Each structure stands twice: as structure tokens, then as C-alpha cells.
Amino acid sequence: MASYDKAVPPGGEGKVILKINTKGYQGAFSKVARVQTDDPANEQIQLTMKADVKVPIHLSSSFVYLMGGKDETATRELEIRAELDKPLTLEPVFFDLDKIVQYKMEEIEKGKTFKLTFSTTPETPASFNGVLKLKTNYPERPEIPIRIRGRIAGRQPAVAAPPVKISKRFVLLRGEAGNEISDSIDIDAAPDKPLTLTPANFSLEGKVAYRIEELEKDKKFRLHFKASSEAPERFGGFLLLKTNYAEMPQIVIQIRGMTTSKTEGLSPEGRQGPPKRLQGKE
Amino acid sequence: MRRVWMVFMLLLFMGSGIASAGAQEIKRPKAVVPEREFDFKDVDEGLVLEHAFVIRNEGEAHLNILDVKTG
Q1: Any chain A CB within 8 A of the CB of B56?
Q2: Same fold yes or no, A57-152 and A165-278
Q3: Do B56 and A8 touch (CB under 8 A)?
Q4: Which of B63, B66, B67, B69 best tests the A interface by mutation, with the highest count of A CBs <10 A?
Q5: How confident is the model over A161-186, as pLDDT tens digits?
Q6: Which phi and psi (to 5°) does residue A270 adopt?
Q7: What is the pTM of this model?
Q8: A225, A254 Cβ separation under 8 angstroms
Q9: Phi/psi class of residue A250: alpha, beta or left (left: φ > 0; alpha: ψ in -120 to 50)?
Q10: What does CATH list as the number for A57-152?
Q11: Would you list the domain boundaries of chain A?
Q12: Cα(B1)–Cα(B6) distance, rounded to whole angstroms?
């Protein structure tokens, strides 16, 4: 980013201010700015800002690209080095390329230098993209994500994992005030792929209560919704859940509610099914 | 004779005018940058670095900075 004085009077002084964010950089770093002026002898002036960016943990690369032929094993190495004067520990906490890519982690120098070796397997598809996350004991850098991508010539494309199965995406909480008004939704994980659900946003706090029941660990979930006794006659909102599936990073459940007092009863339209405006939003 | 003298004087006047216009210098700006490179040395990752480079105009006309491209 740059800001500058557009005109400098004869004998005067102008400024060109350069600003650079070092986030995500490590080691030797330089940025160049080219200043164009109407001085015929200096139409372009090059300005350079340099720095040596210190990081608590140095990575030879934060990205691994594996490329090879059908019958080859592609291998790449990555080095992780502690830059602070305290022992470093690394623990893999997430890896979404199981069977597709193999990796091993070696401690070259205890608490100081680690080597990660990534290699393709006979099951590696034509192309892949994933991440390995390492947890560290450094509060300055608690997590290291390493992106892994690759392309293997002559292999079959990956079979897309079936997405998460959701019994319905609408919850209709309808009934007489004073009675229990509840509904539920079932969510099933894809086969052989554990699912985690994390509530990220809920817009009906105080009006609707919900809980996530894990029927089968990492596989089957049931979401229970219950209208609060203080819920208004009509309400609408949503629950947003984050998942660990890259192909379906979030699930949004729409929630609508209609409560009636006992004396009023449900309208004939209400008895026949949900109003049309609530349908077809899948 | 008088007419010839007038033509001579006119030519002399025009000649001196052209000569004085040729001698007149065109005013130009002159950009002088005392420091073209700045080294922050060791910095922690995540910091936003900012530096003001000075451009002096030692010419006789206004210096215009037309554009600054970073990359």
C-alpha cells in the first residue's frame, strides 16, 4: 500500500509512504515500489523496503505439491524448525487425505527440527487437495496447517464422497401454546468419514431450545428443537452448524414456528400442512 | 535609402528577439531521492511496517508524482 504527495513545489520536499503487512511471511523479505514522476531525468524511481521477518516456527514451505506418473511414488519433504529458545512439540490433529497420501514425521533434532515426508500411495487419485494440521506447544503459533495438493498422471479421478445426509432442512414448530412443541432432524455422516458438527450461529435464542444428540459417535446425529413457552405466535430463524467436511463446510437448518392459543385453535389451512411459503426451500 | 534603413532596423530587432528566446531556459522539476532503500532488519511476523521515503524537488518547476505502483 502506498500514499504520496502528488505535487512538490520547487525547493520543497514530498513523501511517499509505503506500508506492508508481514503476516504470513518468514525470513528475508523485500517489497518494491515504482514511483512515476514528471521529471524527465527521473521518470521512474524505485524504492525498496527490506526486513528479516522472524517467526517462532520456521517452515521450509507451508505447501506440499506431489506430482508424478501412474506407477510412481511421488515424495516431498518439508522441514519445520523451532526459532525460539524453547523445545518445540508437534502433534498431528487433523489430516483429511487418509489413504490418499502418506506422511511421516521425524524429529531430526529433539525439540528443534522436524522433517515431514509426504508420499503418494497406490490409491492416490488423479488429483487431490487436503490439509495436515499440526498442534504445537508454542502459544505464539498454536497450529501449523500444511496444504497438500497433487496430480498423478494416468490415475482415475477420486470418487466424490457422498455428502452428509440430512432428513430435512426445515423445522416447523407448530402447536398450541402450553403444549410441548418440538421437532427433530437426523443427520448421517458419509460412510467411512467421521463427521463433527459444531454450532456456529443460532438466531432464535430464548425462543427455541435445541440440542444435538449423537446417536452413533461421529456418524449419526439427531437435532432436537423445542419451542420455548415464551416463544411469540410466529417466529422464524436458523441454526448454522459447521462441519469438518470440505465439500459441505456448513449446514443451515431453517426454523419456523406458529403457536396458537387453545381457544383459537389451528386454522383449517394449518391442519392441512405447512403453508406454501415454507416449502420448496431445500 | 530611408526604406532600406527601416528594413535593416526591423531585421535587427527580430534577430535579437529570436536570440533572447533561445537563451531562455525551460523550467523543469528535478527529483532527488536521498534514500531509495530502507531496511527494517529483524521484525516479528505479523507487524505492519511503514516507512516514509522523501523526494526533494531541486528543480525550478513543480514536481508531480504521477503514480506509485507496489508489487
Answers
A1: yes
A2: yes
A3: yes
A4: B63
A5: 557 889 988 898 988 877 888 999 99
A6: -65, -35
A7: 0.52
A8: no
A9: beta
A10: 2.60.40.10
A11: 2-7+14-38+45-53, 57-152, 165-278
A12: 9
